[in-house]
Amino acid sequence: MHDAISAEKAGITATAIITDRFTQTARVMAQVSGMPEYPFAVIPHPISNNSEAELRAKAEDAMQQCVAILLQR
């Protein structure tokens, strides 16, 4: 979140990918960074013990969300 918000503040369109376990933390970070409505992609937690197929599915989902977010900006 920090890197994506910093990029946005520097004029570079960006977004972040967050696992659902950290959604509230991401919202708080966006709020304290002065961008309370900052959009981010959310994928299921955890990712560390996922199979290659599960990771691929999560990556596809994240990519679709990121494209949608970036095209709205």
Query: Which sequence of SSEs, written as H and E, runs from N to C?
Result: HEHEH
Biggest β-sheet: strands ordered side by side in the sheet: 1-2
Helix fraction?
Answer: 40-55%
Distance between the termini: 17 Å
Strand content: 5-15%
Largest sheet: 2 strands, parallel
Radius of gyration: 13 Å
How would you classify the helix and strand content by structural class?
A: mainly alpha
Overall average residue pLDDT: 97
Residue stretches low in confidence (pLDDT < 50, at least 5 long) are none
Features:
mainly alpha; 3 helices; two-stranded parallel ribbon; 8% strand; globular; 73 residues
What can be said about this structure in brief?
The chain is mainly α. It contains 3 helices and 2 strands, in the order αβαβα.
Walk me through this protein's architecture.
It is a single chain. With 73 residues, the chain is mainly α. It is built from 3 helices and 2 strands. It has a two-stranded parallel ribbon with strand order 1-2. Helix 2 links the parallel strand 1 and strand 2. The longest helix is centred in the C-terminal third of the chain and has 21 residues, at 52-72. The protein is globular, with a radius of gyration of 13 Å. It starts with a helix and ends with a helix. The model has no long low-confidence stretch (mean pLDDT 97).
